[in-house]
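Help!! Second protein's tokens look totally different from the first
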Amino acid sequence: MFYKERTIIKLEGVTKVFNVKSQKVTAIEKLNLSIYDGEFLCIVGPSGCGKTTLLRILAGLEQQTSGRVIISPREPEKPLNSMVFQGDSLFPWMTVKQNVAYGLKMRGVAPKDYEKVVAHYINMMGLSKFENAYPHQLSGGMRQRVSVARAFANDPEILLLDEPFGALDEQNRILLQQELLKIWEGTFKTAVFITHSIDEALILGDRVLVMTAHPGRLKAEIKIDLPRPRDTLSMRANKRFVELYEQIWSYLKEEVIKAKSAV
């Protein structure tokens, strides 16, 4: 469960402007947002609306041009965040086990202390038979399983996921959504998940934010009152799921049309 009375991330008037070929391009503009401790927050919006830029600001990989980002971790001694990217971000010279252990090793955790943790998440993602394999020996879906396992194994306060399943086929996407839910429901870490899929946002999220077409602003906020634990397949037959889908699409459709007409 998440604790709505405790804000872990607060954005106040956050704007990000890039200089592109001597022109200023505003990616996100005057964004005000609270993200709650233990919440699974999903963000949808048309291409180019600044979703990834927002995630990179939260990760500390980009600096906002103006406004404030306030992060109040529950356990400051833990890593602040771990990020799962869209593409393959594994180290090709490392095995599955070495990739999953990487964050813990960099923090100076002794092998005797992290080996059980690494084995736990490798097992949770169904990769035990492949722990000594290298990324080139794995399918795309399996490589993303390793990325998710690595993020959780590092035990961060906040998980940042940038369309991690976007390039996968439907079968692998469904399987990974279910695996991600299973791990998350055992930890209830704060998660911010970027997706283009309304289905995915509804299956995973406690709350869905809809972004406007460029420049990105917050257009709508929808609380997802579907029961947990969730099954990725049975959810689609839920009447409330269909109602929420239609509600989100009603907000998103206009922005998608705007984004396409601006190209």
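Here's the second one for comparison:
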Amino acid sequence: MKIYYTPTSPFVRKVLVCARELGLADRIETELLRPTPTKADPTLSKANPLNKIPALVLDDGSTLYDSPVICEYLGTLAEGPSLVPASGPDRWRVLRQQALCDGILDAGILHFYEKAHRPNNLWWNPWLDGQREKATQGLDALESEVETFGATVDLAQICAGVTLGWLEFRDVFGELRSSRPKLFRWYDRFAERPSMVATIPHA
């Protein structure tokens, strides 16, 4: 299999961390692309008409996207424990927390792009404030839910770790730790996992 990726994408990192936790990393080749929100990459567009990464090209040439779908697929290939419970309340908790983290990242990325790609005199401040509010509400929800994270790694924990790592890497919303001590105590431990260390984002 081959994944189109960029080392700064948190959604790519989510997939790569999952692959390592599932023992599948050696089955995935990586191909570096650097798509932008203003210009489609022709190679990526052939794999994903939405021109978004990650896109996973399977052995038969078909492609899967986006990160929740790819992570779900990788789970079907693994022989060990699943990252998503098969049924019951824990399954829905993990999937909901994945959606929460993805939404925080969506807001953070929109905020980041507004500042990175527009002159500061054209920044739309109500838009920036709205994205910040969504992201910080999501982080506060994670702070209140971090005690639901168990001893066994699951997809929700991977998503939370990747989300916090990207927000600090990009410094999108400034200091986040002081009002969320439980969440960041958990994160500092989780960030030491080999799967996280091996996928640290870099510009």
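Reply: Different proteins will give different token patterns, so don't panic. The longest helix spans residues 89-117.
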